[in-house]
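Friendly challenge for the regulars: who can give me the structure tokens for this chain first? No prize, just bragging rights.
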Amino acid sequence: MELVNQHVKGIMEECKLRARDQGLKFDNETLEYIVTNRDMIELSPKVMIPTLYDYWVHDVRVLSGKGMYEAYPSNPYETVINTRPAISFYNDNNPDWLNVMIFYHVLGHIDFFQNNLFYKNTWDVDLAGQALADKRLIAQLRSEKGRWVDYAIEFARGIDNLVGYYKELNQIIMNGSQRKLSKTDFYFDIFLQKIKKVPQHEYIKEITRYNVLNKIGEDFFDEVTGKYPEFIELYKKELFRKTDYDSDIMQYIILYSPFLKEEENQWIKSVIQIVRNTSMYFQPQIRTKIMNEGWASYWHEYLFMKDDRIKGHEADFAKVNASVTSMPKVGLNPYALGLRMFQNIKDMEDRGRYSFDFLFLKDEVARKKYTQHKNRGDEFILDVRENFIDFTFINTFIDQDFIARHKLFVTGKYLDQSSMKWKYYIKSKKAQDYKEMIIDTLYHPPQISVDEAATKEGILYLNHKFENKPLKIDYIENTMIGIEYLWGGPVHLETSEPAISKKATTNYASFWDPGAGGTRAAEQSPEDIEWKRVCYVIENRKLHKKEL
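First reply, four minutes later:
Bragging rights claimed.
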């Protein structure tokens, strides 16, 4: 692996100038490396940081990727890392015209990393440097503790999808943008109501007195400080008080685990924190896959088509671009869907169609002809790139016009018993059904939190906030064994499981017969399922379940 030569670096710098001219924003410094196809396999997500801590699962994934490459050689065009400076890796046999296209794609990613608000928790973090420090600490602990380090990593990784990403992101954003608390707000909203707890009639008198004195220009707080000498000190403390927020499971274990409080186990806290920080860093990338890839694809297509360096390679570009951005009839290609959504959003805003006049227009012919010539689509998609995440992106911008424009639909399948082959059919062309299908594919870990009221007498009590999706039973036992080890005592997990209702009318005899209802007959409606609360209990590595 080596840095690109000056000729290739010059191509990248020219691409930066053209990308900035179109409104993209990113740091000046970037690093570009050349690697082979085989080496590119090792740079897959969560393993692409060369300094990331060593773990046996990483090696398994690399070996799996290499095996796949031996069977099906391909050209993985690029990998880009959200670091400062941004680091990207390129194939060692790319021609110049292909590098131009790939550089635009990478700059789209970097712009997204550095401007989307859901990445704010990564903006001030030196990931490469921090990962190197973490890797060295893990190596030192391995030399002292042996295999127990890998047990700690594995148990921590069993719950690293439960980190409080949104809570921490909200804390970061609020600390950066929270307006300064005024004396007036503190006095009436906090001091009188929460600290002094004055009666309602006295509170109203204070409001009246404030309005009178304020009207005649006298300082209301001269009298306040005379009556309440402690007011100024309490106000100063409030200005510097950090907003409290609930700990996630990993934080709670670090702070309160009786096992980890023992001196000989203190080192495990460092391991859990490393796993948690790494997971937290990659959370926004997991949650913006469609937007991120669509944004990069939009700009590599838009900028490269305007670039004079495309001359003579139009057919080559069309072939490569189609392989990346073609829309499948069955399944999901995030590059293709995200690209078409950004194109559609720009077109809709250019024509002024994000308006009440258009939304309430029922005539199909009039809707097709509706144009207000706003021509602010470029500015609008930059705002979308900054403020949305996959869920809100899909939920907001997929509508029936978009479905019709790209001839999209939801497919179903059934087993043809005569040929014993799966056959697909068009199940729905409704926008709402298509949105639900895409949303079901998005990353959405279960919401499990610590019930502090029930956590007592050495028992850690976890509560699963049920969202009509049960936990995967196959993973419960191993995960709870890991939590029990890190907590140092019994663990209870309250969740919901399905129970077939007596009202269920499913005809299982006709499960494979589409003529008798097919898969539709076997699909249970929500009314056919009753959910019951259960509690899984792990103690001394023995798991049992009880109904609540």
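Residues 445-547 form one domain. The CA atoms of residues 340 and 406 lie 9 Å apart. Your move, everyone else.
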